[in-house]
Amino acid sequence: MLSADHVMVSEVFDHDPKRAHIISFFSGGCHQTSGSYDLQGSPCESVLNSDSCIFNEGVCQSFPDDEMLQTLGAESYIGVPMLTVEGTKLGLLAILNDAPMQYSTDVLALLQVAASQAAAELAQMRFTNHLKESQRQLLTLMDSLPGMAYRCKNDRCWTMEMMSRGVYEVTGYQSEQLLNNNEIAYADLIHPQDRDELDRAIRLAVASDSYFQVNYRIIRADGAVRWVWEQGKGVRSDNGDITHFEGFLRDITEQHLQQQRIAEIAFSDELTGLPNRPALLNFLQREYEQTSAPDLLLVLLDIRGFRAINQRFGLQTGDTLLRVIARQLQAELRKFDQSAFLARITGNEFVVVSANYSAGIGDFLQLADHLTQLFADPIAVHDHQLLLNFKVSGAFSKTAQSGSELLQQASIAMYEAKQNELSYCTFDTDLEQKVSLERRQTERFLRALQNQELTVHLQPQIDLNSKQCLGAEVLCRWFDDELGTVPPDTFIAIARKQGVLPELGWQVLKKTCALIEDWQTRYQQVPPVSVNVGAQQFASADMVDEFVRICGDLPASSIILEITESDLMIDPRQALAVTKRLREYGFELAIDDFGTGYSSLAYLQLFDVDILKIDISFVHAMTLDEQSKTLVNTILVMAKTLGLTTIAEGIETEEQAMLLQKLGCEQGQGFYFARPMSPEEFEKQWLHP
């Protein structure tokens, strides 16, 4: 149309903007070989930087560094960019002539039309090539994955429309056999027992418009059953209906079997093969998930004295015994309660969970009797005849909100059975209230201890001859806003059980020292005060240093340490070392509850004690029988021989006081003289002149 000598269509890419790639080049009356050239220093560079570039003459002289232009020897040049509809520059269209030309606006308009058509063609080519490359990459990726990608219809057969090459490795079928259900539908490969679970997972995912993930079994072409993992999502049509599913699945048989083996190890007792504690809790959790109020009886069997069996006959004998017990329990349960669940949860504890014996206490007693009668006769183990004794507790699921709570209730009932020497015990309302009270008492006591809310009272120790106060024993008291006055036996037992008895003792000592220090600043004569020291405090190597630190500048004669005879004999060597150091600091030592323990005369001499406190039980009994009176007299004679002071505890009558005085006892304390009183009352009654 323009009788041009040279026509060139060039393409430019974003990743290489300084170089043009020739798509088509017409020169010398024919098409030339395509190639590429640098845009820098060429008229084509000007085209891409503006809407057009026109040189009617002298183009070679204007661009001396353009080798391609110099080779052509063209004199005139006109070029326009190839633009998409969005204005993106894809390249350029240029016309060159060997002679000078006067390019009119019509020529420019014609070139722009041609460039626009070329740009449309080029954009379509790029899109097509990009789509083909994407499809190629997707197919390569799908075929490289260790599994099967698919697209199927949302129908009962899961009619497959597309599958990746991995279909054969997963199913054993070629894609041609499954596509459009040619020979078999994919739905027919799904294991019948797993189809409902798979359908449920898909329904839930469709309802929430999310991906579904599910494990299930398929039956391969060779008949082998394999586990697969599948993830997929529904594809909606324009009207919102799920018409297809797209997803991916892979064979996970080996991983599944490994997980099963791990689960077997994690939920199985290695010694007996029975389910273990986690397996029991897992079973109970499923029962509670299936119904909010399952009807179950949980029976806990505890082998009494099992540790002694291990110590006496060896661990191998103990292990064999446990296996025998497990086998006998299994065999018996299969006879009369096949649905019962049997587990071993600790070294010497077995659990039976039954739905057939859950009506009430009568059912529990029947089942407990049946199980314990299995072991009425001795069991032969390694030439030993072992006679077993069981304690049995029970709990009913109607009183528990979860499996763990049900097991805890049975454990609480077992603790109650052990504490009260019961053969059988069930968790009921009364026990629940008792446990609840103990729990509340424990929580409030620990809070009171932390806040130092406990107080001290004092009970005077009286000279039986002069009736003067020669000393006092400090007694801890606790009044709670909710619980009222809590007996010392109760909160001391809590402190011992919670391991805070030493802290309780130190707090009492601190309050006592502060009290004595205050009194000594106001009174000339302050009698010595006795403070009880528990066995847990005596067991600490730092006990003496802590005791001395708390007493501070108080004279050692102000404090007397009281420790019970039984506590002193728990570890005589440790006690001897502690008392020796305390004596070096000048503190006196009194043995409390003397006569109830098992200390010897030799130990009394070694401990270098100062005071013997005769136990209240002997004081009460001595006026009733001669034997107790003789025992008290023996203690008093022994103490006098050793040069020890004697204090009788629990004197409640004048007859007891007079008899003790007659026998030679020096001091006494008890309700006959005074009950424990507050520091203010003690000060008013015994310290004021």
UniProtKB/TrEMBL annotation:
CDD domains noted in UniProt: EAL, GGDEF, PAS
Ranges for domain EAL: 438-689
Ranges of residues in domain PAS: 134-209
InterPro entries from the UniProt entry: Biofilm_reg_signaling, EAL_dom, EAL_sf, GAF, GAF-like_dom_sf, GGDEF_dom, Nucleotide_cyclase, PAC
Residue ranges of domain PAC in the record: 212-264
Superkingdom of origin organism: Bacteria
Boundaries of every GGDEF domain copy: 294-429
PANTHER family xref list: BIOFILM ARCHITECTURE MAINTENANCE PROTEIN MBAA, DIGUANYLATE CYCLASE DGCP
Protein name: EAL domain-containing protein
